[in-house]
Automatic annotation (TrEMBL), chains A, B:
Homodimer. Gene3D superfamilies: Isopropylmalate Dehydrogenase. Substrate binds at R98, R108, R136, D222. This is 3-isopropylmalate dehydrogenase.
Length: 351, 351
């Protein structure tokens, strides 16, 4: 197969600008390696609310279901964040998409790039050599439990639930990943307080017996938040639930020296979506200053997913080169910086 | 008043060793400034389970209720952590004590000590000058919601709820604290996903109008976990719920260069408890190597609470001096280190 249908969801804020650079990289890969990517654009998030009233229009969902992969930009707009009474919010679009497509596993590699180590708030000896990947459950937990606000508005409730089945399918992916890496899985939970965490601990402990070559250990989430900064090198695969994964994967982004370089994959049994982990960064919207590399690297993860490893490696090499030569946006080097589109041009030319 | 009843709960692991040093510091303060502290020791945690089968014996609870303040060590034992089916766990003792005494507000100062900056995994320019305090809600949220495990053991549930009242009493304390500090409160929540967080945001936004001299801003918890490391100086008072507070306050402990120096207060309308934020560190139990300074500084917070500011400042000065002279345990300086009790001796002698 050399022809692929890609749904592109630029989203909000800087989403469209960075996604465009990722598409340019895909085009270059297509030219060099003989693949054809057919793109269909779709709306999601604040822009979708503005145009259709719905953060995830049916059309978008249908397009995603039919495509081989989804390339997504970013979501969110401050005009909704501070209005707790807004009934429709951009994030609902992304959450619904994850749920409807069954994208239950979010994978976030965390690596310290040599050229960026100086940009990290952490000391070089702490982070150099870090190579971790976070496996975050994405369609369960408190994100998708019942939500209630009492009639008088004085009491709010969120329910969190997990089933053995949800935990097992995640754990299998994490253990399999560990097998081709450093053979260690760390489960992050709060089993000293939460019933759901105790079910995670029990289920994962059982299932670990099927992977005797992989070491399993446990960390309470509060301790994990500390250990990630004190000694990130101790981790190989981190396995965790939806909410804890949200927090610690964003926290872990500081290790690499730039959140502008971190990509992620959200996979299910039928579909897969690729996105930078940074947000919509509305202050930079339309200014051609946003760092496109995380989106470009998401495209590389997308290629890996489609089995096009040659293309994925070509993109990664181009990103590496842009870092070495300093062809980067102002967040990486404010003294000598290039625009979003110039960085994108360099990447696609280099490929 | 110069006579005070203190309930001392040494707890598990290194709890007894460090609490003893804190008591020595209190004794020295008593001698110098003419106060009398009457101590009663009580059981809680794994040691209480071992002796009585109950992580919080009634006797302990009664003693705490009658005392002017509670000095607590640490809780937890690994033999319970990896046994998800244990019906009785040490942590239940602490959680129940917080709930029964209504200790709804946990206060954790985060400061970068000049002498310790080199020990931090963060770069000096990032942390120097950090002076933040975290106000964590302590008797609500998912910690105290309903917990369920289905009969077949295949589905677990945790409920999280918050009421306007619970949020308001916390917010008042945080805004009042901000008034005597840098006049800024940052609410950390996940209002783009959780109903309870939206209630926090709405309630705090309303209440902020009573404090027009204090600036209020908001951060999603994932972003907060990142910002705490990228730029901790941006924060003054951080206000947040129970679970998020647990995670980010442990994360914030890396800023100071040593978790062995961080104290906390848990206050309610009738009672107050003081404890180091570090855990029971069972590997070090009985070895006379644990850092007692966090416990000693908890005693200083206790004195402040009792209105004995002179004693509190004397303890702080002694701790400062021990850092300057390098009279510290091996976690701070492994090349030249002193035992737990020697550090405690220095503190009380200096006072
Ligand atoms: C936008 C938001 C709902 C989302 C989440 O919390 O999952 C984001 O933070 C992420 O991590 O992808
Ligand atoms: C021991 C545990 C239950 C406790 C908590 O999570 O509150 C501890 O981590 C803390 O922060 O005091």
């Amino acid at each position: 197969k050399t022809k692929f249908n890609i749904t592109v969801i630029p989203g909000d804020g800087i989403g469209p600008e960075v996604t465009k650079q990722a598409q340019k990289a895909l085009e270059a890969v297509g030219d060099v390696y003989g693949y054809t990517f057919l793109y269909k654009e779709a709306l999601m998030g604040a822009c979708a609310i503005d145009e259709t009233g719905n953060p995830l229009p049916d059309e978008t969902l249908e397009l995603c279901k039919e495509s081989d992969a989804i390339l997504f930009g970013a979501i969110g707009d401050p005009k909704y964040d501070n209005d707790p009474s807004a009934k429709v919010r951009p994030e609902q679009g992304l959450l619904k998409l994850r749920k409807e497509l069954g994208l239950f596993c979010n994978i976030r590699p965390v690596k310290a790039y040599d050229t960026l180590i100086k940009n990290s708030p952490l000391k070089e000896e702490i982070i150099s050599g870090t190579d971790t990947v976070i496996y975050r459950e994405l369609t369960g937990g408190i994100y998708f439990g019942i939500k209630e606000l009492s009639d008088d508005g004085k009491q709010a409730f969120d329910g969190c639930s997990y089933s053995v089945e949800e935990i097992e399918r995640m754990a299998h992916l994490a253990f399999k990943a560990a097998r081709s890496r450093k053979k260690k899985v760390t489960l992050v939970d709060k089993a000293n307080v939460l019933e759901t965490s105790r079910l995670w601990r029990k289920t994962v402990t059982e299932l670990a017996k099927e992977y005797p070559d992989v070491e399993l250990d446990f960390l309470f989430v509060d301790n994990a938040a500390m250990q990630l900064i004190l000694n990130p090198k101790q981790f190989d695969v981190i396995l965790t639930g939806n909410l804890f994964g949200d927090i610690i994967s964003d926290e872990a982004s500081v290790i690499g020296g730039s959140i502008g370089l971190l990509a992620s994959a959200s996979v299910g049994s039928e579909n897969a979506l690729f996105e930078p982990i940074h947000g919509s960064f509305p202050q930079a919207k339309g200014k051609d200053i946003a760092n496109p590399l995380a989106s470009v690297l998401s495209a590389a993860m997308l290629l890996d997913h489609l089995g096009l490893q040659d293309g994925a490696r070509a993109i990664e090499a181009a990103v590496q080169k842009s870092l070495e030569l300093g062809i980067t946006t102002e967040d990486i080097n404010s003294e000598r910086s290039f625009s979003t589109s110039k960085v994108g041009d360099f990447i696609s030319d280099y490929i």
